[in-house]
Design goal:
Elements lengths: L7 E7 L16 E2 L2 E2 H10 L4 E8 L17 E5 L4 H12 L8 E4 L9 H13 L4 E7 L4 E4 L5 E5 L5 E10 H13 L7 H7 L4 E5 L11 H19 L12
Parallel strand pairs: 1-4, 1-6, 4-5, 7-11
Antiparallel strand pairs: 2-3, 6-10, 7-10, 8-9
Helix pairs in contact: 2-4, 4-5
Amino acid sequence: MSVAGPRYWAVLPAAGIGSRMGADVPKQYLEVAGHTLLEHALHALLSCEQIAGVCVALHANDTRARHLSLMSDPRVQHTTGAAQRSGSVLAGLEALADVADDNDWILVHDAARPCLRRADIVGLLHCVVGAQVDGALLAEPLVDTVKQVNGDARITRTLDRSQLWRAQTPQMFRLGQLRDALKRAHSSETGITDEASAMELAGYSVQVIPCGAHNMKVTVPADLELAAFYLAQAAADDTAAPAQADPGTQEF
């Protein structure tokens, strides 16, 4: 389709089962601060008016998503995901093909990152559009000393932490370039852990945009308590400064 200029879309892979949580429901449906992780992540994306639409990639046997009110938002569509994250992202990109252009920007966000704030998204958009890069991702610089060890858990060297970052999401790239990079990685059976990995392998320039520890990923049960803390902190900040409230933390 032809548009006046590139638009912004989002893909939310939510087809995983979150086995490390040891819960009775998939991780994305665990609740914190009154809502599921998926709802928090989706609401953060929808709070950014620049995003034209969000495609949620769900497990083929998912029966819970249809009960979430946000899934009926006119900007939200869903598709069937895959066993691996990259496959779910690719399914989301292909589902958006009818409404989005290859030159449009795609923001891929983890369903298990419930504390993303609208300001984080806006900052990412501004940095990517204004920089001479093929894409970028939110990330947190490492502050701990990092050791590399061998198979016997003996230290082999200390890494230079000044060059190490924790990758977060959203990760933002052009739709066509990301789709092709993911397909190329799949065809070569190259293991990739995020979208940036595929883009790096394809030779693209990817930049990190600093983001705080609040944009954490819920992986183990103890993370739920920390996520609740960050969500409460954001809500308190909004109450203290209502004129600058972040829509990503309001009730929904």
